[in-house]
Write a structure and sequence with these properties.
This protein is 20% helix and 23% strand. It is elongated, with a radius of gyration of 20 Å. It has a domain at 37-112: SUI1-like domain (Translation Initiation Factor Eif1). With 113 residues, the chain is α+β, with helices and mostly antiparallel strands. It has helices at residues 68-79, 97-107; strands at 41-48, 54-59, 83-86, 89-93, 110-112. The termini are far apart.
Length: 113
């Protein structure tokens, strides 16, 4: 439901490309291209940051072919740690290489260390 739906200020959503109403729009937006996990290789590294902090870094997964924020959320909840997505790298705080390796393998990714 839109914010002003049912009031005199209601404006139906319009297409960003052609400016027509979304129901009348005929231009096709490019669909997101998801890449199958089995065809991707996740590279796991353990990096030491400033002040001796240890971070598990996952590289090799493209942002266009994956939902990296959703993957990060799932890994953070399984590891019980914080993390972030930085320039097509997923970072999890702490040494979780073994746990993340098994989780990614269960999801279907190929894992390299």
């Amino acid at each position: 439901m839109r914010l002003f739906a049912g009031t005199k200020y209601d404006q139906p959503p319009k297409c960003d490309r052609c400016g027509k109403l979304e129901t009348e729009c005929s231009c096709s937006l490019p669909a997101a291209r998801w890449i199958a996990p089995a065809s991707q290789v996740a590279h796991l590294r353990l990096e030491k940051r400033t002040k001796g902090k240890v971070v598990t870094v996952i590289r090799g997964l493209s942002a266009e072919g994956n939902d990296l924020p959703a993957l990060l959320s799932r890994l953070k909840s399984q590891c019980g740690a914080g993390g972030a997505v930085q320039e097509e790298c997923v970072e999890i705080q702490g040494d979780h290489v073994q746990r993340i390796s098994s989780l990614l393998a269960d999801m279907g990714y190929q894992v390299r260390r």
